[in-house]
Specification:
Blueprint: H1 2-20, H2 26-47, H3 52-90, H4 96-115, H5 120-125, H6 127-132, H7 139-178, H8 180-206, H9 213-252, H10 257-267, H11 273-289, H12 303-330, H13 338-348, H14 352-377, H15 390-396
């Protein structure tokens, strides 16, 4: 009893300590995820006869060269395009955004002044409703009032809400890129995680009572394999989706294709909400900043139709990935039914984006643990069952026959 209580106190203290220092552990968490993704390659080299230290060095150097190459290719363009967008949204007085909004409002005013007088009877029939809404009942005055409201709503939506969220998101990404200490900590932590992975597993198992270590080791192996398959699949799908999206945005003439491709890769793992944000960002960017070149370098539709074509194509790309490519990459990694995955994602949304990202593998982990415990309670499996004592085993054995003279 006291052993169990002491074990619970130690584990609880460790969890509380990790909670209070969680913000400092982010680079180590990223390094740990990278180590999990690289560990299978290390083990493959070890099976070929390489020493673990040499295998880690080879795999880590290959990963480092790949990461540096991609960073040199994409980081400058991403940084420049993000800074351009931030500066554009911050120019409220005489910036391009204000000009775009004024153009929208002017088009809306022209349309309303032409169409509302044609529907005088409809306006008169709904005079009481217009009064309750604080709108005039005379067609020309109604057109002017609606134009004023359109301009106010557009300013609130684009200059206030959109600018605040886009600036916050891009500044967060740029802040991560600008943290020089992270550039050092993440590779170092990934390298040391790879070196110490067997020792870390033994250290964790040391906290488990000896009688249950074999069962817990097997359970850890299954859960670790599940998380690895999920993380590997979702990272591969995100990187592939970002590259394809970047190429697609460049072909259709969307502005800032590198920025949109990176945003697509970051947002794609977020279930449901990610697809909506990707389509919305491509539509808004094309509508506000205008196309970079004609659609597929062939036709030059209006800005609105160009933006609609961009978002329609982005939705097609997203659908193809969701239905064909991502299921093949994940390969049924978690084994959770669609309804269970949907419930897990909705519940995980209470903890924000990270909760939605990790909802499916965490739910599958709980499913595995609950199934094992139920099998044990039903007497159908020996999970967490105490091993038979050596004396009892010896007593049950029949004595060996005496040797004949």
């Amino acid at each position: 009893m006291w052993r169990v209580l002491g074990w619970a106190v130690v584990v609880s203290t460790a969890l509380v300590f990790l909670y209070f220092v969680r913000s400092s552990l982010v680079p180590f968490l990223i390094g740990g995820i990278i180590a999990l993704l690289l560990n299978p390659f290390v083990e493959a080299l070890c099976r070929r006869g390489y020493a673990r230290g040499r295998a880690i060095l080879n795999v880590f150097l290959a990963f480092l060269l790949l990461a540096i190459g991609l960073s040199l290719m994409l980081a400058p363009a991403f940084y420049a395009q993000a800074q351009e967008i931030i500066q554009t949204f911050n120019q409220k007085g005489n910036g391009d955004i204000t000009k775009v909004i004024n153009r929208w409002v002017q088009d809306a005013q022209t349309y309303l002044e032409q169409e509302i007088p044609k529907r005088r009877e409809l306006v008169e029939r709904n005079a009481e409703l217009l009064k309750r809404l604080g709108l005039p009942t005379e067609p020309d005055a109604l057109a002017r009032a609606l134009t004023t409201r359109v301009q106010r709503r557009a300013n609130e939506l684009v200059l206030d809400n959109a600018a605040r969220y886009i600036n916050s998101f891009l500044n967060t990404l740029l802040g991560i890129l600008s943290k020089a200490i992270w550039i050092i900590l993440i590779p170092m932590s990934a390298y040391f995680f790879l070196l110490d992975m067997p020792g870390l597993q033994k250290s964790f198992l040391f906290m488990v009572p000896p009688a249950q270590r074999a069962a817990v080791r097997q359970l850890m192996s299954e859960i670790g394999a599940l998380f690895f398959r999920y993380i590997r699949g979702i990272v591969t799908a995100s990187l592939t989706y970002g590259a394809v999206s970047m190429l697609f945005y460049w072909l259709v003439g969307a502005p800032n294709p590198v920025l949109l491709g990176v945003l697509a890769a970051i947002l794609y793992p977020i279930p449901y909400l990610g697809a909506f944000l990707i389509a919305l960002s491509s539509f808004v960017f094309t509508l506000i900043f205008g196309p970079a070149h004609p659609l597929f370098f062939i036709v030059s539709p209006s800005t609105v139709w160009h933006a609609i074509a961009v978002v329609a194509g982005a939705m097609v790309v997203n659908t193809l990935f969701d239905l064909i490519i991502t299921p093949r990459l994940l390969g049924g990694a978690v084994g959770l039914r669609p309804l269970g995955a949907l419930i897990a994602i909705v519940v995980g949304s209470n903890w924000g984006i990270w909760g939605m990202l990790l909802a499916v593998p965490v739910a599958t982990t709980l499913k595995i643990i609950i199934e094992r415990l139920l099998h044990f309670f039903y007497g159908e499996a020996d999970f967490l069952e105490l091993p038979e004592a050596p004396e009892a085993t010896a007593a049950n054995q029949e004595p060996a026959p005496a040797a004949s003279d």
